[in-house]
């Protein structure tokens, strides 16, 4: 099969863009990158750089990845901080289910013991940690999605797009969790050990004094175990759901929909993806909470204490509500930021069939 004018360029895998963007490319053929090698071993050719609709940010330029990283900070940091009360109750239900029997009693116990201000205990490490994670998660996802598409080539990038979504998101999350782990460790200790610290400023020095700097990364492997499946599900299911919504639920092509409708689709698809994420990653979430709360604890200790069934069920209903809302809001905010800076919303363009 002879590739089309768009797909023959290794740097522009067609399924990543809407037809409107590709049409824009045809009208801007004078914008080119320096010569680059074909990932399939061909001779050096010049590949065009796609412009965003407002021609302000070149797609897949350093400015594009910086914008995606900024959108990740905006979406992840703010949303995780906003649900700190839910996260606080969830963590305590995982650590002490006798005291924190359910959602209602959990909020009641916290209100009685710490007052209303106690509901936002640990908000600073939450904001900083998830802002750093969001920057890496979204920025590197866009990078790796593009990189793996280039390696696969135009036809395989379309044929195996779900695998590319999974590989790109997993690669991004490995990096993102290294950025998140220290703040996550302090956050859990502050939230689940009464009297340990008021917040980050006194909690971080006390944590390092008690566990050492290496202790900040004690929960990294369980964090990977929680976050990598979560993020793979989050991005791959989101991309798939958005595509299906535009294909089956909305009779109008994405390019003809208003930005408000497109952002509504992003939120709805994000919420559904978030429910799936919560279920897939919940056992590891229980492990992270247990390990960061108990000095010297191991994964075996956690399994013996919580039980296999408990790993899958303890705190799950609250986490479904929290993660569903969180993920929907994240995708809505992330795509809102992209629209604000002149970039297209994520996903939703069904690739043309390969002939």
From TrEMBL:
Question: What PROSITE patterns does the record point to?
Answer: SOLCAR (PS50920)
What keywords sit in the KW lines? Membrane, Mitochondrion, Mitochondrion inner membrane, Repeat, Transit peptide, Transmembrane, Transmembrane helix, Transport
Membrane topology value: Multi-pass membrane protein
Q: Name one GO molecular function term.
A: mRNA binding
Q: Which GO terms describe its cellular component?
A: mitochondrial inner membrane
The protein's location, in the record's own words, is:
Mitochondrion inner membrane
Keyword match Transit peptide? yes
Compositional bias per record (Polar residues), positions renumbered to this chain: 38-47
Q: What is its main location?
A: mitochondrion
Region entry Disordered, spans = 26-48
InterPro entries reported in the protein's UniProt record: MCP_dom_sf (IPR023395), MCP_transmembrane (IPR018108), SLC25A3/Pic2/Mir1-like (IPR044677)
List, in alphabetical order, the GO biological process terms annotated in this UniProt record: mitochondrial phosphate ion transmembrane transport; response to osmotic stress
Which ranges does the UniProt record give for the Solcar repeats? 63-147, 160-244, 261-340
Outline what the protein does. Answer: Transport of phosphate groups from the cytosol to the mitochondrial matrix. Mediates salt stress tolerance through an ATP-dependent pathway and via modulation of the gibberellin metabolism.
Record's family?
Belongs to the mitochondrial carrier (TC 2.A.29) family.
Protein's UniProt name: Mitochondrial phosphate carrier protein 3, mitochondrial
């Amino acid at each position: 099969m002879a590739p089309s004018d768009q797909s023959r360029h290794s740097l522009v895998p067609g399924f990543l863009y809407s037809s409107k963007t590709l049409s824009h490319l045809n009208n801007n053929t004078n914008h080119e990158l320096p010569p680059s090698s074909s990932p399939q071993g061909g001779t050096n050719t010049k590949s065009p750089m796609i412009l965003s609709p407002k021609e302000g940010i070149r797609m897949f330029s350093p400015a594009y990845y910086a914008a995606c990283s900024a959108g990740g900070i905006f979406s992840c940091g703010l949303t995780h901080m906003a649900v700190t009360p839910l996260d606080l109750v969830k963590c305590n239900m995982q650590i002490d289910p006798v005291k924190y029997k359910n959602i209602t009693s959990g909020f009641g116990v916290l209100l009685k013991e710490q007052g209303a201000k106690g509901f936002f205990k640990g908000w600073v490490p939450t904001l900083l940690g998830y802002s750093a994670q969001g920057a890496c998660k979204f920025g590197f996802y866009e990078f790796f999605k593009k990189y793996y598409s280039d390696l696969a080539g135009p036809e395989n990038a379309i044929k195996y797009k779900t695998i590319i979504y999974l590989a790109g998101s997993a690669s991004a999350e490995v990096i993102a969790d290294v950025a998140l782990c220290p703040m996550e460790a302090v956050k859990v200790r502050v939230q689940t050990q009464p009297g340990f610290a008021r917040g980050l400023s006194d909690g971080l020095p006390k944590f390092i004094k008690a566990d050492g700097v290496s202790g900040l990364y004690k929960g990294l492997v369980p964090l990977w175990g929680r976050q990598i499946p979560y993020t793979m599900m989050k991005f791959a299911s989101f991309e798939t759901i958005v595509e299906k919504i535009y294909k089956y639920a909305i009779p109008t092509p994405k390019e003809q929909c208003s930005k408000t409708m497109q952002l509504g689709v992003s939120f709805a698809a994000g919420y559904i993806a978030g429910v799936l994420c919560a279920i897939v990653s919940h056992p590891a979430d229980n492990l992270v909470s247990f390990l960061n709360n108990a000095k010297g604890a191991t994964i075996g200790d956690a399994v013996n204490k919580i039980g296999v069934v408990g790993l899958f069920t303890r705190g799950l209903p609250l986490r479904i509500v929290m993660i569903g809302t969180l993920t929907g809001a994240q995708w809505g905010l992330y795509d809102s930021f992209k629209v604000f800076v002149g970039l297209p919303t994520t996903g939703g363009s069904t690739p043309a069939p390969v002939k």
